[in-house]
Amino acid sequence: MVTFMKYILLLYFLLLGQIVNAQEKSCILTIRGKISHEENNEPIEAAYVWIMELGTGAISDLNGNFRINDICPGTYKLKISYLGHADIIEKIEIKANSNFTFRLHAEDINLEGVEIHGHQDAIITTTSVNSLRGDELKYARGESLGNSLRRIPGVNTYSTGSNISKPVIHGLHSNRIMILNNGIRLEGQQWGSEHAPELDPFIAKEIAVVKGAETVRFGPEAMGGIIIVNPSPLPVKAEKSGEIDLIGSTNGRGINGAASFSGGSEKIKGLGYRLQGSSKYQGNIQSPDYFQGNTGVRELNFSGAIGYSSQKLGTELYFSHYQTTIGILRDAHTGNLSDLEAIIQNGRPFSESEFTYKINNPKQVVAHQLVKLKSHYHLNNGAKLNLQYGFQRNQRQEFDRRRGEANSRPSLDLELFTNSLDFSFTHVTRKNWNGSVGLNLIQQANSNIPGTGVVPLIPNYDMINAGIFAIEKFTSGSLELEGGLRYDYRYVKAARFNDGDLEERDFTFTNFSAFLGGVYALSRTLTINTNFGTAWRPPNINEQFSQGLRQGVAAIEIGNPDFISEQSYKWVNTLNYSGKILKIELTGYANRINNYIYLNPTEQQFVSLRGSFNVFEYQQTDAFLWGFDLNSNYEINSHFEVFTRGSIVRAKNIIDNNYLPFIPSDRLETGLSFKFLQGKSSSFSKIFLSNLLVAKQTREPDFDFAAAPEGYSLWNLGIQTPVKVGKNPLSIGLHVNNVLNISYKDYMNRFRYYTHEMGRNILFKLNYEF
């Protein structure tokens, strides 16, 4: 597999070299730039950029970015136009590849047709950002956040069965990955491998992934990267729109639906609102040869937002509620040691389950509420003050298989409250510099609700984290440089009963973080991004104090309160070629993590009245991770397109000179799509076929309960076609995952000891916009 992927990479570089060498020696300069509103610094989509002498131009994209290629050296007049805003006509001298920033001024904020976008700050970073949006996001509707993001190279999932998954970026997951839900860092019990993000993917208009160490901007939990889930901006003029999704799946016989509606006030200019909700109802998952007992899912979510935007002031109030019940595979909980050993050896459940929607114990019941209040105020010369408050309440109950009345009581009952406050000052100039300084405050309180009859897995604790940061960016022609510095202080106080005695401990952690990055346009089609960042992460409460059964993964976990903070040094480089018919993005990275904390399987089993369980122990070492991500797209002609996505991750335990557990194996996905126009319209239907190759993980730690599963090959098929319902678009999709119904296991699934992955799944998708 690795040799095959090396040949693929070699072929791409040879092809890239031929294309670059074939470029003409003159008139190859590129103008890049960004266009935003002067009144709120938000990006402007569909602004018109025109070089008057050449009669050529471009239109800005969703993020306000534009690019004009094939420019000769010289002096030109550049004109920028956008409805309701004053034109900019500026003389520019082009001697090399150049980068510009333009801010358009609204001529009259009350003019009908002028739209000030809802205030949604983009993440501006020199690290390459990969996104799911538009049609690609529609294709992912109905999937979990983790499974949706597997479309981005370098992103994988860490799973517990077929219905719980969480994102993995460059081999890191859980508390090393930060998820921003509408600008608020998502705070739940994310330390658990079987604790999926408490977030409804249907709220997203765009999901972006930043793979670099972003500790300076967001704090310790961003050392492995960031996942940004952004809804659409709130409307601010008198218009109404909405969207309805309906998805049915054959595997699990599930139904998944969502609806959203947004509008603006006719009486108050700048006032807008949005309402959204979704639900999911699914029964037992089926592997190719059998049903997985007790793997149903229930989900009910809703959110609402209201906001106001004016020339100087913007504010938004947002609320969301997430509620789910998830069944846990019953066969993962065995009654005695011999049964545990037998099911691991058998590799699949002994019991013959049937399809049902009923969910019994073991199960999870999770609720998450989020309230966000955000405001900003525009000062002179493009400066802006930002203030954001967030409140979150996370309730998690986990139920074991227990006898009698105790069966109705949760064995784990946690309630986590989080308050966060973010303040920043940003400045933007037409010259070379822009940047920001800010303060982040977080307060958390975690409580074990009495009445479980079980010693709590983690203790009660209180946590306070304060961080201050400064980031500055320099832009000159085809070069962008960015650097930042941050200081964090964290205090944690924990209390638990240990052998009947109350044990209280407090911890103080401090750290400086820094990064330096840049973007340089090597030619009109070739750019390179580089970013080196230091990051840190203090040990999480579960890594320090776990002392019992993790019901969701049917395992005993043991922590160590004497762990020290992780220290990371990550260097990420991305080479991006963007031609007319060929696009290639290649990312390479190296990440040294001192004091790396990981969960390691031991050779012990624990037997109790609750059953027999494998024992895992948290350990600390020095680790080195490196790898490559590849993403390419080649347009054969106006109908056919070929894509390739691949990733390689290597991770080494430096101290013990062996491998780390739960690191993704090599992956390569290739696909072919065919699109054809529908009559005289510009819309098109699309058919795509892809093959996913996943290698066997041969770099295993010294001990595991079962050998890594064999590699596998999956075929997936999809058809997507648009139709008109009146004047509104309706998208109809038919997707088939695992077309050949292959029986396989994935190394990154903690239930691979007991069961196989999901078999063939046919999904029927409807998306209606009005």
Automatic annotation (TrEMBL):
It is found in: Cell outer membrane. The keyword Transmembrane applies. Residues 125-226 form the TonB-dependent receptor plug domain. It is a multi-pass membrane protein. GO terms for cellular component: cell outer membrane. It comes from the Bacteria. Pfam families: CarbopepD_reg_2, Plug, TonB_dep_Rec_b-barrel. InterPro entries: Beta-barrel_TonB, Beta-barrel_TonB_sf, CarboxyPept-like_regulatory, Plug_dom, Plug_dom_sf, TonB-dep_rcpt-like. PROSITE patterns: TONB_DEPENDENT_REC_3 (PS52016). GO terms for biological process: siderophore transmembrane transport. Keywords: Cell outer membrane, Membrane, Receptor, TonB box, Transmembrane, Transmembrane beta strand, Transport. Its main location: membrane. One of its GO terms (molecular function) is siderophore uptake transmembrane transporter activity. The keyword Transcription regulation does not apply. Residues 360-739 form the TonB-dependent receptor-like beta-barrel domain. Belongs to the TonB-dependent receptor family. PANTHER family: TONB-DEPENDENT OUTER MEMBRANE RECEPTOR, TONB-DEPENDENT RECEPTOR NMB0964-RELATED. This is Outer membrane receptor protein. It comes from Belliella baltica (strain DSM 15883 / CIP 108006 / LMG 21964 / BA134).
